[in-house]
Amino acid sequence: MTKFVFVTGGVVSSLGKGIASASLAAILESRGLKVTLIKLDPYLNVDPGTMSPFQHGEVFVTDDGAETDLDLGHYERFIETRMKRTNNFTTGQIYKSVLEKERHGDYLGKTVQVIPHVTNEIQDFIKRGAGFGTADAVDVAIVEIGGTVGDIESLPFLEAVRQLSLRLGPNQAAFVHLTYVPWIAAAGELKTKPTQHTVQKLREIGIQPDALLCRADRMIPDDEREKISLFTNVALWGVISMPDVDTIYKVPRVLHEQGLDGLICDKLRLNTPPANLKRWDDLVSETAHPQGTVNIVMVGKYVDLSDSYKSLNEALRHAGMKNHVSVKISYLDSELITPDNVAQLARFDAVLVPGGFGVRGVEGKICAARFAREQKIPYLGICLGMQVATIEFARHVAGLRDANSTEFDPATPHPVIALITEWKDADGSIKTRSVDSDLGGTMRLGAQSSDVVPGTLAHQIYGDVVTERHRHRYEANVNYLDALRQAGLVVSAKTQREHLTEIVELPQTTHPWFVGVQFHPEFKSTPWAGHPLFNAFVRAAQDHHAHTAATPEKALV
Ligand code: GLN
What we know:
Layout: E1 3-9, H1 17-30, E2 35-41, H2 53-56, E3 60-61, E4 67-68, H3 71-78, E5 88-90, H4 91-103, H5 114-130, E6 140-145, H6 155-168, E7 173-180, E8 183-184, E9 189-190, H7 193-204, E10 211-216, H8 222-232, E11 239-243, H9 251-257, H10 260-267, H11 278-288, E12 293-300, H12 310-322, E13 326-333, E14 350-353, H13 362-374, E15 379-382, H14 384-396, E16 404-405, E17 415-418, E18 444-452, H15 457-462, E19 465-472, E20 475-476, H16 481-486, E21 490-495, E22 501-505, E23 514-517, H17 532-550
Parallel strand pairs: 1-6, 1-7, 2-5, 2-6, 7-10, 10-11, 12-13, 12-14, 14-15, 15-23, 16-17
Antiparallel strand pairs: 3-4, 8-9, 17-20, 18-19, 18-21, 21-22, 22-23
Glutamine is lined by residues 355-357, 383-384, 407, 471-474.
């Protein structure tokens, strides 16, 4: 029988509810339990796929092709269970489903209301995410409720989980509330009042938390913990400090030391072996003792919000750990890069152009790809980063003047990147190919496999087959592949089913490390294994670093 832990947040957002939930899940997993995590988002968008990265941060893509909240990235990096479409849902999805049922006549003429119809739907979605009552059922599902207690929009979620815990019966569900305890410098005191108020709000709804995770810039002293306990009706051992830490990998240890997992297992009557956090301790010690630094520059559009490249940052950090170096990432706004100032990239050990949408900043990225190619600086292009590398190569090496993607210039004479539906035969008719017709004009999403060409750099990295996740519309135009190949570009992997270009590279005889991938490898990197592509990229950056240090005049380019 699946048990549930509901994680809510109070006072302010951005306290790290995702990391707290993922850390608790990791500790429970280390106690031998099968665990999953589910994220409930209270906004009306059906999924974050349509939201601007400036607004919402990264969109995390699952193997089964769902566009989800970036917290699911943390979940996959912290626990073994893989996330699926059912691990994240929004108010928009709930209402969509309720309205479809209403139109279908499923409610048999009843008045359709928030309680019970919407709240029941939420409970069904939560159970589905946990595989409740099926062969896939987990022992514990940790359900993170987005937003802050007191928001109008999260009310139906809170009501639904209260009802669910009642229906499941005693000892089947626990409530954890993440709160903020500010340090007021002028008074020299930690203030517990916001915590008292947010728990009051929660109790008004009928939820009594079993544990409070108190975010503060320091550990909460015992007298303040006692005060919080008394005012919130939470047992003293349930008042747990969650101080600022220098790496997120410390959080499982911090929570375990204070007995959070013990408390949860006690409440849920789970009898398990003790937690074993050795792998987390090893990670923390690895990050604390790097043997060098590499400087990587990311040339992107969403550089002002670091959440936009969350998985990418983590993947680079993981690869650093694998190579025993610390990876310093600098962000350059691609809109500001021109041929006149692109030489500033010479001071970095490697260049990364990440994914992106829309024409803004594209010429700067093309400029960066050209500079990395010509100056033989390691280059990794991801999704759009592969597309700009292809456009750059077409323009400056293959002699296809004004080559472009139809995303940026619909009238380009050489659409080397285009929608599949735009690939035309010589006679102008749409090229007929054996692809799923809905691929054109819609996103290619989720995991797909490709065959890798032996003898290529990609083959050294991946072996025979690569399976990675996608999120894009445009593709390398098959009609230009021969011209690009003749000019020296290597197409090192194509999808097994539709033979779409997945990886391009420069031969290592002409460039030490230049790779563009149409997929998003960052989604599959974990702190334990890193990721083969990022591991190799960081190694190439290290080599470049060693090489430029040996020839200092190069550093002055
Ligand atoms: N805009 C490009 C496309 O849709 C690249 C997308 C991306 O980088 N994720 O194909």
